Amino acid sequence: xxxxxxxxxxxxxxxxxxxxxxxxxxxxxxxxxxxxxxxxxxxxxxxxxxxxxxxxxxxxxxxxxxxxxxxxxxxxxxxxxxxxxxxxxxxxxxxxxxxxxxxxxxxxxxxxxxxxxxxxxxxxxxxxxxxxxxxxxxxxxxxxxxxxxxxxxxxxxxxxxxxxxxxxxxxxxxxxxxxxxxxxxxxxxxxxxxxxxxxxxxxxxxxxxxxxxxxxxxxxxxxxxxxxxxxxxxxxxxxxxxxxxxxxxxxxxxxxxxxxxxxxxxxxxxxxxxxxxxxxxxxxxxxxxxxxxxxxxxxxxxxxxxxxxxxxxxxxxxxxxxxxxxxxxxxxxxxxxxxxxxxxxxxxxxxxxxxxxxxxxxxxxxxxxxxxxxxxxxxxxxxxxxxxxxxxxxxxxxxxxxxx
Length: 404
Known about the structure:
By secondary structure, this protein is of the alpha/beta class. It has helices at 23-37, 55-68, 85-99, 104-119, 150-167, 184-200, 214-221, 225-228, 239-252, 259-269, 273-286, 294-317, 322-341, 354-361, 369-377, 396-402, and strands at 44-48, 72-77, 172-177, 204-210, 229-233, 352-353, 381-382, 388-391. It has a 5-stranded parallel β-sheet with strand order 2-3-4-1-5, with helices on both faces.
């Protein structure tokens, strides 16, 4: 098979050639956009799921849908070491520009509010060279979104932004990736702003994406967050959608898969979108001719697994300290022990009790709290419920067992 014509794209956040299995989410979002633009009540949206299920890809696709509706859009990626003001200001600056509001004075006022919101990060008495400039020419508006209280400031900022969008019959959508990495104060402010906007009927929505414990992060911040957001769990693809993700791009390059090859691919990838692209690329490069067979999949699997071991699993494992790696391996061993014992059912996320992990390491649970908390902060594990933990990366336990 010609590697130049290889259609598969195993990149972080890179849109695959066929966005299979996400039609329901795209259709639902189109309804949200229309309702919000018409002043109808609608909730903001939160996408949750493991690494490699395509949350970022879907987030970008939803943003594209908003752009096609001529909404103002902006996107940011949350980071544990960064506050919300600066990245959000840059995203909203872009959103205002996309709106195309005809009244320059009104636009300059909102841009001035965004600038004041951003520069408040440096403090009221900061020297000019210490103030971050978001590239906005309009002067900062004093007394608006610059109180220093992020919750008050964000409510004022979203209110002004929503008024500008309402003037032109459009909306503004803010897309936040890795939303679970926002600080507690920023999460609280974001929930409060979304609550205020939904009550006032202004056309502003937030679309967040994050790991499975993101709903718990939001709920811990504001009790009403459960009613504030529409939560959508993004999971691995069903067999039919996984087949489409492989066959549609192949057909566009005049190639095909044998039935047994598709079955082998699903068994190897588990339906996870990132794995489908990684295996698809490796199989295409090594298959001698079309149609691709199950034997081709077997020959190419070691190369696909080696690539995943370095780029997908290994890069994450290397971020852990030796003590944290011991904890991760103990999690993997504990999951196998639970499954083999038959004494308890393994849930659909493969979570394990923290007490069992401690027992596997021969230590008290309290002594392992620093390692566990560090792994949680690094996004390698998450806690779906009290006393249990799971990997954020699918098949990570298998990787750990196979690579010692």
